[in-house]
Amino acid sequence: MAVKEPEITLKRVSHWIGGRLVEGNSGRSGIVWNPATGQQQATVDFASVEELDAAVAVAKEAFKTWRQTPLSRRAEIMFKFRDLVDQNRRKIAELITLEHGKTIPDALGEVARGLENVEFATGIPHLLKGGYSEQASRGVDVYQIRQPLGVVAGITPFNFPAMVPMWMFANAIACGNTFVLKPSEKDPSPSLFLAELLQQAGLPDGVFNVVQGDKVAVDRILEHPDIKAVSFVGSTPIARYIYETGTKNGKRVQALGGAKNHMIVLPDADIGMAADAAVSAAYGSAGERCMAISQVVVVGDQTADELIAAIRERMSRIKVGPGMEEGVEMGPLITREHRDKVASYIENAPKEGATVVVDGRQDPIAQSEGFFLGTSLLDHVKPGMKCYDDEIFGPVLGVARVKTYEEAVRMVNEHPYGNGTAIFTRDGGAARQFQFEVEAGMVGINVPIPVPVAYYSFGGWKASLFGDLHMYGPEGVQFYTRAKIVTSRWPDPSTSKVDLGFPQVR
Ligand code: NAD
Q1: Model pLDDT for residues 227-279, shown as the tens digit of each residue
Q2: Do 160 and 213 fall within a single domain?
Q3: Which has the least CB within 10 A, 66, 180, 310, 432?
């Protein structure tokens, strides 16, 4: 008699609509992998147009009462949510690591940076204050109020499944909007847990909804007449598409795209410090960060030789393995396909004229079942090579050698991406010159990953951002509200008369 294989029931990740889990009924779903083992660990429902519409209808209904909720109550809910996220840091981090693969300390860092945005949103009563001009004309006062937009949507990438949603929904909700989140289908669970925590914090049902899915859900978000604004974070081709389609349909859109972040190292830099920074920023989270340093530009051959030696020495000590394991510093990549794509850049680099100094494909871990690749270092990388022009989004660091500071800055400015950049030097004048002329949205001076704190805003330039307003912080509040200017006069019959002239203020 044949022995029957035991049936393994896979976890099913569903939607969160109207304050409860709702199983999808479209019949379509995706695979959620465990990148550390290479095994499927769950399925994720993919929403149909009708299911997306149902979530928007719930959010639209919830908006009617949510926008009337006093500011103090909204702030109180944000405070409670802040405490719940704080108490559940470890649990959120584990959910991230299981599906994304990054290490637990890295995932805890993600939660902490997301939490900052919730803390910022607790100040919403202050943030929504408008201006008031008394006596703009005789007996006339003029003032500005900022009002929520209605239902707004967020579409988020795989690489920060908790932080990027918090970048968006904390401010959006605190401003009085209701929210529909379409998380990455690759790691969809953390957002459902955040939805539960929001409910526990006292957020009324329907204010925050999660719709899992793919292009079908995204396209419906872009055309749904009741969605007033769309925040997107992801790759540049999709960001451009989201911006063009969303704005064509009359929506307010902020769409953040990909990056190629350059780190310039001048000859006077502290080589040890620059190497520490380059290694941390290039290989942290396996290079799957939009603010990762993927390209070092070194001024002078001697500095380049010294820096490469210092980087190699540090690379040899990085512990690569499953993110859940104690002591591991770098986890796997998100999928097998992505790992292979990253590996193809290393394969092609010598054909393009670059030198492979360290080849991550040779690391024994690259042969395991998980989606692993060791760390790689390429030298003599130049514009025109694919390994320079493209965002690789993996643990591959390129080094370019130039003769002058001017040449280095020109490289940064001529690259189509302009998310973040950094300079390493002891020369304050050179650093100031760099800050003045470099074309990127976020600049680090001896800081390799200059992600702004939550009370500033996050955004790149050029092909790294489509739209006007950056994400979170003061610009986030601006994005999720619209201004209304009121000009008011209280009746004073003694001064009233008919006057057909154009109103003047003096
Ligand atoms: P992605 O563009 O593939 O996906 C992002 C979102 O868009 C996901 O929710 C996905 O489901 C959806 N999507 C994918 N293809 C689509 C299509 N054809 N039509 C409609 N929707 C689609 O990005 P990713 O691989 O999840 O994330 C990595 C990218 O995100 C990198 O390029 C990285 O630089 C970028 N990123 C940028 C920032 C930033 O702040 N600028 C932050 C994090 C990540």
Answers
A1: 999 999 999 999 999 999 999 999 999 999 999 999 999 999 999 999 999 99
A2: yes
A3: 432
Q: Ligand 1: which residue has its CA nearest to atom 10? A: 184
Q: Which domain holds residue 195?
A: 11-257+464-486
Q: Whole-model pTM above 0.95?
A: yes
The CATH number of the domain where 298 resides is what? 3.40.309.10
Q: Are strands 396-402 and 140-148 parallel, antiparallel or unpaired?
A: unpaired
Whether ligand 1 lies within 6 angstroms of the CB of 238 is answered as yes
368 and 348 assigned to the same domain: yes
Closest-CA residue, ligand 1 atom 42, reads 290
Treating both helix axes as pointing N-terminal to C-terminal, what angle do 405-414 and 428-437 enclose, rounded to 10 degrees?
30
Q: Point out the residues that are catalytic.
A: 290
CA of 465 to the centre of ligand 1 (A): 12
Last residue of a domain, one of 445, 475, 500: 445
Shortest-distance atom of ligand 1 to CA 338: 25
Q: To 10 degrees, the CA torsion angle through 291, 372, 325, 104?
A: 20
CATH number of the domain where residue 214 is located? 3.40.605.10
Instruction: Tell me how far apart the alpha carbons of residues 237 and 50 are, in angstroms, rounded to a whole number.
Output: 26
Ligand 1 atom nearest to CA at 256: 41
128 touches 477 (CB < 8 A): yes
CA of 232 to the centre of ligand 1 (A): 8
Sign, CA dihedral 304-306-311-313, equals positive
Residues 305 and 193 in one domain: no
Same structural domain for residues 306 and 436?
yes
Distance 69 CA to ligand 1 centre (A): 33
